[in-house]
Amino acid sequence: MHRRAFLKSLTGAGIVAASGGLPAPAISQRAAANTVRLVPHADLANFDPIWTSSYIARNAGLLVWDTLYGMDAGLKVQRQMVEAEGVSTDGLTWTFRLRAGLKFHDGEAVLAQDAVASINRWAARDTFGQSIKSIEQELVVVDDRTFRWVLKKPYPKMLLALGKIATPCCFVMPARIAATDPFKQISEYVGSGPMRFVRSDWVPGARSVFEKFADYVPRQEDASWMAGGKRITADRIEWITMSDPATVAAALQNREVDWWELPLPDLIPMLRKSRNVVVDIQDRYGNIGVLSMNHLFPPFNDPRARRAMLMALNQEEYMRAFVGEDVSMWKLLPGYFTPGTPYYTEQGGEILKGARRLDEAKRLLAASGYKGEPIVCMAAQDIANHKAWGDVTADLLKQLGMNVDFAAVDWGTVVARRGQKNPPAKGGWHMYHTSVYGVDWVFPTSPFIQASGTAVVDGWAKSAPVEAEIAAWFAATTLDDEKAAAGRLNEAALNDVMCAPLGWYKRYYAWNRDLAGVTQGPLPFFWGVSKTA
User: What's the pTM value of the predicted model, to 2 decimals?
Assistant: First the structure.
């Protein structure tokens, strides 16, 4: 049975109502007022937010580690660990001074050497870090709280690079941990953020636990997204992994969990009827569906095969498959910038507009050299939107005459496998599905539109025209010049097909009425969140 029809049959029968017949989930009933329990969008299977660009690692990372700068809800970059910074008149020398009194969870002071080591590890995995490194003269410690970054030419958007919300974020770790090869996972999770990671309670596939760090030093400003004073009210935060949406809905209504990050759209009407549950739009910047293709191996190493996918896919089908029939909740997206934001553009987006051209797509696919080899298409079955979109893509590939090797796996497996450069027939992949926060596509900082050949998430895409326009945007000093560069970038990225946008959509949060302080944003921000009963 189709997923949407199945879920409607559940809600129609009252099976997922609070008083229905679902068995209670295997969750501790210790409903302590100082513990907040979240059902996150995915399991925290890999916890190194530099090694992996997955959102789940970044979201957990924001609890455990802090950043030099942070983006607020107005999309402005604010100081976070940094007390003050200065830049020389020629734009070549940046000096940063850390706030006093910062401590790591092991009691050691946060020093400039930790920031320098952390920047070096982050820069090895981040496209913009690599860009800065390419013009670096030196990055040195001045004293315990001060470091200096000297460049060979100006980099006007230095603070955006250090404070961006797009993964990977520049998290500050102890120098000994930051010395870990950036292409290998860390094995120690010590930060200076507001929560400690309780590794002894971590059960991958089931539970992740964080406890309040008593020596955290919040900023004095009000919290706003990644910026300001991250004051945690809860003593303990538990992330509970639950793969069955009906079970989560029942647990939320029965107060066995407090917050559901990604409730299914089909269940929203039922949740709204519950006296114990609050439902609201998660984030005004919305979300964007993505189909990422591997640029290293045939047929998608040929841009003609990638263009064939853009020419054939129907964004409306993808949006209806998960978001549903309410067209106020989604939009078609002919490009790589979030609707309603300053750099939104449809320049070059004609390939995604109008009637779908399957016959022409088939001819392009044949011209690319495709000869019927199996196409490894990954779709995480434990994330509802990925699962729904995977079904749409599998059907589309068959319509194009392609041989589909459908990999129905969990998200942790997708994250691990997409990092492999092995040929698809030997444990690699051709394509996978994911979604990005709309805020990540406000600026051209998302790894999904990077084209240096080093970004895992967009299949190691490489395109000189795209890289040139990204550089032009970062070098621009006026809004008009930034907009012009964004338009050219959108066109170049669609021409070479960095990835396939599947549409823009809004989604919901759902939380228990006993939970106060929940705010809109692209991810669950726990600062100021408390339980009232």
Answer: 0.87
